[in-house]
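Sequence, please.
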């Protein structure tokens, strides 16, 4: 017996291959993948800008139905719709032992080191599996890890009521971050995004938007914030040019968070004296520690169904990645066990 999977083979090469089922035992959970969404990290992997241990099935945002379980599994049953927290931590390094598993020195990730979700089936350990609440679609459930990353980022920001926040990049994570920051009490949430489709979605959700291609971003932000600059800046586009803009947009005593995955080969210059004089705080935010369960609890309030704008079968994964790269929608999903066409 075999199943189909999209295997990253290195050198920007992705191929549909047949994989053989392995024996399910112990704490193993076999999932029939219903939906797997494309993340910016997946795009970076195929562009050669992010590490993946080839050959490996990429895709770390996925949900599906439990097909089989090992004899030690007790928290889920065959037929359950589940989502996967796609990391395995060693449990023994310093960071695992002080409650910072996401900084684990020996961390492994599905879709990077281990086979992930762009396949008809995937086997994961029970501890990474979460049962999906009643009524939640598989497309939304696949987004749980991504929402968890956003929750962790907003936790680190420590948003105060009345803050002015700017998000650079209005893709899926930009929209979710905007929603979460507003829920935390920010009085103005501004999103800079060149894509008209994404700006329209943000406007419908009640956010202030800026088109950085046709408006002067620094002047517009200065006007909105009465010349004071923003209290919070989040770089959510993963681009060197937007990363460089952060210091120009943040106000005194403000916080900059680098959330987007800027390719490791790029760097920016920041004046230590500027950080000193203005008492700036600069943060990073990595993955989603202890937030998967919280994500499932809050996702209904974020209205995520409308953000999954494109859906493709596994056989058309190249088209799906092209749509993600071009930003023609917001979130692109792969339905590995479907033969249907794309929907927009």
């Amino acid at each position: 017996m075999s199943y189909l999977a999209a295997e990253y083979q290195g050198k920007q090469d992705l191929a549909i291959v047949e994989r053989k089922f392995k024996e399910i035992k112990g704490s193993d959970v076999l999932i029939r993948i219903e939906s797997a969404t494309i993340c910016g990290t997946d795009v970076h992997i195929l562009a050669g800008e992010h590490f993946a241990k080839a050959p490996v099935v990429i895709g770390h945002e996925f949900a599906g139905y439990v097909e089989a379980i090992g004899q030690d599994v007790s928290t889920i049953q065959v037929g359950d719709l589940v989502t996967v927290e796609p990391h395995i931590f060693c449990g023994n390094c310093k960071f695992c032992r002080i409650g910072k598993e996401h900084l684990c020195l020996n961390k492994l990730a599905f879709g990077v080191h281990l086979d992930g979700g762009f396949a008809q089936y995937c086997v994961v350990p029970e501890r990474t599996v979460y049962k999906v609440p009643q009524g939640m679609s598989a497309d939304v459930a696949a987004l749980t890890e991504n929402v968890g990353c956003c929750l962790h980022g907003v936790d680190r920001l420590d948003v105060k009521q009345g803050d002015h926040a700017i998000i650079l990049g209005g893709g899926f994570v930009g929209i979710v971050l905007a929603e979460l920051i507003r829920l935390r009490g920010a009085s103005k949430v501004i999103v800079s995004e060149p894509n008209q489709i994404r700006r329209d979605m943000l406007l419908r959700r009640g956010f202030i938007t800026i088109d950085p291609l046709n408006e002067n971003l620094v002047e517009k932000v200065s006007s909105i914030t009465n010349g004071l600059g923003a209290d919070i800046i989040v770089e959510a586009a993963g681009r060197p040019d937007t990363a460089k803009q952060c210091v120009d947009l943040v106000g005194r005593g403000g916080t900059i968070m680098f959330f987007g995955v800027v390719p490791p080969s790029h760097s920016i210059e920041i004046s230590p004296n500027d950080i000193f004089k203005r008492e700036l705080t600069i943060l990073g935010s990595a993955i989603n520690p202890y937030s998967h369960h919280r994500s499932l609890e809050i996702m209904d309030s974020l209205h995520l169904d409308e953000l999954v704008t494109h859906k493709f079968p596994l056989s058309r994964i190249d088209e799906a990645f092209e749509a993600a790269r071009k930003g023609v929608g917001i979130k692109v999903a792969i339905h590995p066990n479907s033969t249907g066409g794309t929907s927009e």
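The mean pLDDT is 96.
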